[in-house]
Amino acid sequence: MSLRHALLGLLSERPASGYDLLKSFDTALADVWPATQSQIYTELSKLADAGLISVTAEGPRGRKEYTLTRAGLGELQHWLTETKPQRNTRSDVLLRVFFLGVLTPEQARGYLTGLIEMSEQTSEQLRGLDDAIDWGGDRLSVYGRIALEYGLRFNAMRRDWAEWAVGQLP
User: Fold this and answer.
1) What is the pLDDT of residues 72-98, one digit of tens each?
2) In a shared domain, residues 111 and 140
3) Domain range holding 42?
4) What DSSP element (H or E) covers 8?
């Protein structure tokens, strides 16, 4: 997945300014695909140059509203249907677990306990995000809630696994 496709996906729902898109990345997409302001505005320029979005309104202080073009929708649909998702093959978390044997059991337990705490904190943040978003019946809300549920379930699984792993230590 790329920032390009995340922006195209957001714009498929409705036209938006860079600021509006940044707010979506800070809330609805925060746990899925984080992006900074500079990354978003740089990618918006690239998308406009490629003809995948267009500027449909300009306001005060250089505010621009972007709209998905027919070519942009085609690119998004192609990515969704013709491009296989990349399996995340690297995990800093699990690589560290693999080598916990070089630490004392107490240090290894501390690392795993940290994963439990991280999972609980992330779940708490996601629940707060769920409460803060005004979910509607639009497509982005429906599928956004489904993605948020994935995050909640993933963190619950990681917490359960880390608790199990602590029990495996000497």
Assistant:
1) 999 999 999 999 888 777 888 999 999
2) yes
3) 3-82
4) helix 3-13
